[in-house]
Design brief:
This protein is α/β, with parallel strands linked by helices. The chain has 13 helices and twelve strands. Helix content is 42%, strand content 18%. Helix 9 links the parallel strand 11 and strand 12. Helix 6 packs parallel to helix 12. The longest helix has 26 residues. The two termini are 30 Å apart. The protein binds nicotinamide-adenine-dinucleotide.
């Protein structure tokens, strides 16, 4: 029996997590972790991350982010998350996903969705096994949220309010994006349509930089065809960490957790951070940035486009409705957040936490 006392000491609080489950299928070797953080507002929605380095602590932290995200956006859902330990680039994904799905059949309070390493095809396998998931392919009546760029669209709506608040005009603002995947590439594309200039983007292979602006459609195309942003014709090629040193108006971390920390925060010369990834900045680094006049919009506000889309899909709504609701809800929560920062001089995370936690507690008060 593993010693869980450390996990309880570190993470159990007034909201959750209410369930932390490890699953193992000896037949296929599938190892997975599921955390249901809080279900007071409704069944927990959260992605299934397929990665070699995922662990219980990370899944617990990500599940909490989902609780806050669903609550801040006013959705009738709680927060959960899952991790499958495996290489997203090799092996038989179908067997892995089907085996994982069968193991979580009884966890009916958890509705899986796509996350890093998984996509709508993976959701198709889960749906086939347990009939419960979001982010399904269109052929199964789903809304493929990564294909349509739900989260990237949401980030662009948040930017529309956050930039003027920080004294920056959207038209002509410069942008650097870490991680050019489902979140990063769509955020860059939607922002480019609003007149923002993408000057740098990175992925695991490196950073591409062009101060005159990268053509977003070309970059998306080369990343799709060659698998790397470095295949972009022109621009300068740099190491992936160099994205942190680019001087620009907007920085969107859209890759991994904990990329900006107290140790590297001094390298950043940016004005606004829109947290596209979940938990990309430690709280200490967020405070340091805020004290230096950098506006950070916390993950569970900025990247909620995906869960809003998921909630629409769960109720059988259309893609058009999903985009309308993302816009309406994200503009509303961003206005609320900016107003609390402005009036009460709160750190953005503190203001955002209060908004979300109050909503979760109000729901908990009505539950047994
Ligand atoms: P993805 O796998 O499609 O893309 C991730 C990208 O990050 C890839 O381009 C990869 O090469 C790059 N990357 C990984 N490590 C890197 C590193 N060290 N430096 C530079 N680039 C690196 O994943 P995604 O769906 O875009 O998700 C990205 C993040 O956003 C995750 O934290 C995820 O939880 C979060 N998120 C995703 C959604 C969504 O709708 N997909 C919604 C909310 C939050």
């Amino acid at each position: 029996m593993p010693d869980c006392s450390n996990i309880f000491e570190k993470f159990a609080d007034e909201l959750g997590p209410v369930k932390t489950v490890h699953v193992y299928d000896p037949r296929t070797g599938t190892k997975g972790i599921v955390v249901i953080d809080n279900v007071a507002r409704g069944p927990a929605i959260g992605g299934v991350r397929l990665a070699l380095d995922i662990d219980t602590e990370e899944v617990i932290r990500l599940a909490r982010t989902m609780t806050l995200k669903n609550a801040a956006a006013g959705l009738p859902h709680g927060g959960g998350k899952a991790g499958i330990i495996g290489d997203p680039h090799t092996g038989d994904k179908e067997t892995l996903l089907r085996s994982f799905a069968r193991k979580i059949r009884e966890l009916t309070d958890y509705i899986p969705g796509p996350d890093m390493g998984t996509d709508e095809e993976c959701m198709g396998y889960i749906h086939d096994e347990i009939g419960r998931c979001i982010g399904k392919p269109r052929s199964l009546g789903g809304i493929p949220l990564d294909e349509i760029g739900a989260t990237g669209y949401g980030l662009s709506r948040v930017a529309g309010l956050a930039l003027p608040f920080a004294g920056i005009s959207v038209e002509g603002a410069t942008l650097a994006v870490q991680g050019f995947g489902n979140v990063g590439r769509h955020a860059a594309a939607f922002l480019a349509r609003q007149g923002v200039r993408l000057i740098a983007a990175s992925d695991t292979s490196g950073t591409i930089r062009r101060d005159e602006g990268l053509d977003v459609d070309t970059l998306i195309q080369v990343k799709k065809e060659e698998g790397s942003v470095l295949a972009y014709p022109g621009g300068s090629k740099m190491a992936k960490e160099e994205i942190f040193t680019i001087s620009c108006d907007i920085f969107i971390p859209a890759a991994q957790p904990d990329v900006i920390t107290a140790e590297n925060v001094d390298a950043f010369r940016i004005k606004v951070v829109l947290e596209g990834a979940n938990i990309p900045i430690t709280e200490e680094a967020e405070r340091i940035l805020h004290d230096r006049g950098v506006l950070c919009i916390p993950d569970f506000i900025a990247n909620a486009g995906g869960v809003i889309c998921a909630a629409v899909e769960h109720r059988g709504g259309s893609e058009k409705h999903a985009f309308e609701l993302i816009r309406e809800k994200l503009e509303q929560t961003t206005r609320e957040l900016l107003s609390a920062i402005d009036r009460e001089k709160l750190y953005p995370r503190k203001a955002a936490m209060r908004m979300a936690v109050d909503r979760v507690k109000a729901a908990m008060a009505l539950r047994r």
